[in-house]
Amino acid sequence: MLFLTRWRRVFTPTTSFVLRLYHMSSPMSSVGQSAPKMADKESSVESFPPPQELLTPLRVPQKTLLGPGPSNASPRVLAASALPLLGHLHPEFLQIMDEVKAGIQYAFQTRNELTLAVSGTGHAAMEAAVVNMVEPGDVVLVAVHGLWGERCADMCSRNGAEVRTITKPIGQNFTLEDIQKGIEYHKPCMFFICHGESSAGVLQPLDGIGDICHGNDCLLLVDSVASLGGTPLYMDQQGIDILYSGAQKVLGAPPGASPISFSPRARGKLARRKQKVPSFYFDMNLLSDYWGVGLQKGQPRKYHHTGPISSVYALREGLAKLAEEGLENCISRHQQNALLLHQGLQDMGLELWVKDKSARLPTVTVVRVPEGVNWKDVASYIMNKYSIEISGGLGASAGKAWRIGLMGHNCTRDNVELVLRALKDALQHFGVRVQARL
Asked: Model's pTM, two decimal places?
């Protein structure tokens, strides 16, 4: 007896998405024919029962994600994720991959040929950058002013690098003088800095860093996971050698395929490696063949792995939305709404973690928790009453701050007003006197 399975997505009154399972038996079952019996020996084997939780419909609540990411995907991006699967080497999918590459080049403002989407989240892109550029014994200098510098230093160390650091207190960024002194002293082959340090809400200026690096025979690696599309970033013009980001922030796609790009200088270091890239999965020499880097039109792609088909669809649509809005307009929207949020928070008597206005990251705002207030109680109250996510601090700001994200589809004036009202209500509920007129 043949069973076909049909899934249907249903929107229920409880504002949850539900996948319901329907069974249709084959015509043979309606004429009294039964399935062939298993052999006695086989039927005597005991098997584990199916987990009961998988025999009920999948329920996913609707929430407004105003934390540091992921952000809510637009209906258009979600619809793209649900399109029919293609084979990972079908010509139609290869065309979509080419469109994704062009979209990343636009978002990064680069003409780098080695530009693609790593199969994985932003952490995968960070690791891909490190494993391709770092060999045992390489001196790598990492700027640490939050969690992401610490994370990159860890990855470099795991790959055999001699890791050196320059540090700033969380909430501050680095000056060109800080960076030049560190590079001239440590003489690294690569320098890492995070453009948008989301654990602290800090925006790091990039102008001039590339010149310092290249004047000292050093590559520049930049993390733009939380900044891409929300603040100016020009890979070629700013002399960035390796740049990576994520899909789930301003691009508004589900995490799973992450943009990355390598300059000719970076590709030169890759070509001069004395050892193979230690990760097969992230080896850019092999991924280049899959993504068609350097191939003439009509030349066959080489199989490397099965790409995350639906994630690539979604990333393509996120990049298409960015292209339609225009990069400058998208940046302006994020900056304007961030200013509204900052003003509203300060009007409530709350303190922003980053004192210097020019150093505030537009996409993720970090707010100090008032004395005597439990950050988790407030965040839970807002989630339970409003179905809005705001997050706690991360790394050095853990337990001391809230992080509020305005990214991509969520970056609207309505959401600014919504989260301010919810936060005011929560604070008053826990006995905090609030000054705001909201």
From this structure: 0.89
